[in-house]
C-alpha cells in the first residue's frame, strides 16, 4: 500500500474561502488525498478563478449544489472520504445540517471537523447580546453529539486578518500612527492566529487519536496580547508614542447599543475578548492546546504579523 493510499482522504467544504483554501493546501501538504466541495456558480466565473489554485495544488474538485437542494450529490461526495472539514462562514452554519445527515448515512467518515473555529461558544459570556451569532454553532454542535458523529472542535479565537490589521480599531484599515483607542482597562488578553496556521494545526488532528471527540484550543504564546501590550509593541515598531483614548466598559456598552451593523458586531467581539476575557478567562489542559500537542508546527506571531504593517 502506498503512503498516499494509507493517508486519510479529506473533504473540505467551503474550500473557496480563505480559511477553506488554507485547509485544502495544508491537507495536501500533509500528504492527504484532498477533495474540495465547490458550488456550481464558481465554475461559471471567468477562467474559474477561485478553482485554479485548488486544482493546481492537487485537489480533486467536486461540484455540488447548495446542500439543501442536492443531498444525493453531497452524500456521494462524503462517501469518497474518511474526514470532512467544514469552513463555511457562521452565517451559513446551519447548512451543515444536511452535511451531518450525509456523514451519518455514509457511515465511512472517521472524523468531522465542523465550522467552529473562532471562539468557543460554550464559554462566551455575551450570548445575551450577540444577536444569535453563536446559537447557530451551538445548534450544530448539539446535532453532532446527538447523532454520535466522531468529531474534533477547533477554536482559534480571532483570525489575524480580523481586527489585528487595524490594531483593534474598528473602521480603520491600518494601524494608527497618531492616536489609539483602548477599550476597557486594556489588560485583558485576546488571541490571534493566522489562518494558514489554523489550517496546519487542524490537519494535524485528523489522524491523532488524542483529539478524537475532543476540543482543541489554539493559544500560541506569541499571540496572546492585551490591548495595552499590542499598542506598546506597535509603538516600539514605529518608534513613536501614540495618544491613548480610553473607553470605559460602560461607554463601550453604550456605543454597542447605538452602533449600526456591522460595526455593532465588531464592538461586541471586542467587548467579549478584551473586556470580558472570553478568549482566556478559563484554563485549559495542555493536552488540549495545539502548540503543546504539535510543537513542531511553526506559526506566525503577532509581532511578525505587525512587522508586515510597519
Automatic annotation (TrEMBL):
UniProt cross-references to Gene3D superfamilies, sorted A to Z: NAD(P)-binding Rossmann-like Domain, UDP-galactose 4-epimerase, domain 1
Lineage of this protein's species?
Answer: Eukaryota, Viridiplantae, Streptophyta, Embryophyta, Tracheophyta
Q: Which keywords annotate this record?
A: NADP, Oxidoreductase
User: Which organism was this protein described from?
Assistant: Aegilops tauschii subsp. strangulata
Asked if Oxidoreductase is a keyword of the record, the answer is yes
The NmrA-like domain is annotated at 8-306
MF terms per GO, please?
Answer: oxidoreductase activity
Q: Does the keyword Mitochondrion apply?
A: no
Supply the PANTHER family for this chain. Answer: PINORESINOL REDUCTASE-RELATED (PTHR43349), PINORESINOL-LARICIRESINOL REDUCTASE 3-RELATED (PTHR43349:SF34)
Q: What is this protein called?
A: NmrA-like domain-containing protein
Pfam families on file: NmrA (PF05368)
